[in-house]
Design goal:
Length: 238
């Protein structure tokens, strides 16, 4: 029997999913709650957490869930077919993906696959993940040895280099300010520096050395960090 806990900010959504899963053989819903509900993150008896990817605060809660229950798996529902959204889920600790247009049968398959230690996603998502891993591998060669920055951390460093505050970065990336602070802390620790500006300068220098390898960059205020296409569109007004 797989024990399932539902996490999401919309009560109607999580109760509807719970009702559907209660009719599925081999699954037992042990609870449901919102990310900001006291006690919701204490549901450590669950084998699988089903998280509403579109509910504010839900993805940010995943690392805390996995800290409390390290053996648990996480399946996200309502995931849009957007590469950046998928990567954000992966970095949070999600191992199963149910697209916004998919139904309960796919969700059950995702829960069962997660329990087998498999990553459940559509072929399109798998291709997106492969592209991002390939791109990140190329970029990481320009980062100081041992840094191991994630794709999201590289985005944060880029925005730091643009002079944005943590609050502004949170707005641009559509994440919580507390999440940005965690990213900044990890970046400083990985790069072994004490200040945000030092981190940006360190990564900028590494990328400049790789210009001969034809990494596309967009100069900004005299700087040479690679630019996320979404940020480039914002700068150009499109």
């Amino acid at each position: 029997m797989i024990l399932v806990f539902l996490l999401g900010g919309v009560r109607l959504t999580r109760e509807g999913i719970a009702a559907l899963l209660r009719g599925c053989e081999g699954l037992r819903v042990v609870g449901a709650g919102a990310p900001d509900e006291e006690g919701a993150l204490e549901a450590t008896e669950a084998d699988v957490y089903v998280v509403d990817a579109q509910s504010p605060g839900s993805l940010e809660a995943v690392p805390r869930l996995l800290t409390r229950n390290q053996q648990a798996k996480v399946v996200a529902v309502g995931v849009p077919e957007d590469e950046d959204e998928v990567i954000a889920c992966v970095e949070a600790g999600v191992t199963g993906f149910v697209l916004a247009g998919e139904g309960v049968e796919t969700l059950v398959q995702g829960v069962e696959a997660a329990m087998r230690g498999e990553v459940h996603c559509s072929p399109q998502m798998a291709a997106a993940l492969a592209r991002r891993v390939t791109a990140l591998a190329a970029v990481q060669k320009g980062v100081p040895p041992g840094a191991g920055l994630t794709a999201r951390e590289l985005e944060v460093v880029e925005l730091i280099d643009e002079g944005l505050s943590n609050k502004e970065i949170a707005h641009v990336l559509r994440i919580e300010t507390a999440t940005v602070k965690n990213h900044v802390h990890n970046i400083l620790e990985k790069l072994q520096v004490n200040r945000r500006a030092e981190a940006a300068a360190r990564v900028r220098s590494a990328f400049r050395e790789r210009r001969a390898d034809r990494i596309d960059v967009l100069p900004s205020r005299g700087r040479d960090l690679p630019v996320d296409p979404r940020i480039q569109r914002r700068r150009s007004g499109f």
